[in-house]
Amino acid sequence: MVEPGLSGRLSDQLYERVRTAIAAGELVPGTRLVELELARRYGVSQAPVRDALKRLAAEGLVLQFPRRGSYVADISEEDARQAYRVRAVLEQFAATEVCRLGPPGLAELLAGDVEAMRAAARRDDVGGVVDGDVSFHRHVWEAAGNGLLARMWTVTEAGLRSFTAVSNKVYFGRLEEIAENHVPLVTALGGGVPEVAGILFREHVLEIWERIGAPIEG
């Protein structure tokens, strides 16, 4: 049961609870999310449940169909593979531009994201690790000085978030490893060699496919 309080706060709590359940694999892709059942489960009215599901739908974690209800989003491995292939190219471009521009304050933001991932990993909080991971790469894309690229991250994030949440838990031995894998990226961005930074970011994105055993070519 969530803590009592204002409707907005209840909505936030429901959002976090359901998102964590999706990230941990407790709510598998294709699961129907019935507002009344969730309201009973968490001891709240349907209004905050409805608001929470709308937020999750905006992130791509939930699919909502008129007159059919809400479902945990199902992102196939092939869909994710295609999205990662595009992301790898854009990530390389973003890192190259950021290294070339050297925007002030970015290193501190990224260091904060890494610490957030470390803290979440110590709690075995998959959703928290994903949040830190998403924030890290969003900061890089936004710092590239390209408005279109920043807007494209929103689309990319929505398409990959649920797959990343599951794959991080399945394909990495320890959640701490995910956080530490970002440290060399921060160093590369401050190294002053844009081409090197770009390649490292591209390889970082494609690493998950190497772990699966079917790396993307090209």
Description:
The chain is mainly alpha-helical and 218 residues long. It has 2 domains: 7-72, Orthogonal Bundle (Arc Repressor Mutant, subunit A), CATH 1.10.10.10; 77-212, GntR ligand-binding domain-like (Four Helix Bundle (Hemerythrin (Met), subunit A), Up-down Bundle), CATH 1.20.120.530. Helices cover 71% and strands 5% of the residues. The chain contains 10 helices and 3 strands; from the N terminus they run αβααββααααααα. The chain has helices at residues 7-23, 35-42, 46-58, 77-101, 106-122, 126-143, 147-171, 175-180, 183-189, 194-212, and strands at residues 32-33, 62-65, 69-72. It has a 3-stranded antiparallel beta sheet. Strand 2 (62-65) and strand 3 form a beta hairpin. Helix 9 (183-189) packs antiparallel against helix 10 (194-212). The longest helix is centred in the middle third of the chain and has 25 residues, at 77-101. It starts with 6 loop residues before the first helix and ends in a 6-residue tail after the last helix.
According to CATH, what is the class of the largest domain?
Mainly Alpha
- With strands numbered from the N-terminus, the spatial order across the biggest sheet is 1-3-2
User: How much helix, percentage-wise, in residues?
Assistant: over 70%
Largest sheet: 3 strands, antiparallel
Number of helices: 10
β-strand percent reads under 5%
Q: Compute the average pLDDT.
A: 83
CATH fold name of the largest domain, please? Four Helix Bundle (Hemerythrin (Met), subunit A)
**Weakly predicted, low-confidence segments:** 3-7, 213-218
The strand count comes to 3
By CATH, the superfamily of the largest domain comes out as GntR ligand-binding domain-like
CATH architectural group of the largest domain: Up-down Bundle
Radius of gyration using CA atoms only: 18 Å
**Count of discrete structural domains:** 2
Global structural class: mainly alpha
Query: What string gives the helices and strands in order?
Result: HEHHEEHHHHHHH
Shape: elongated
Alpha-carbon distance between the two ends = 49 Å
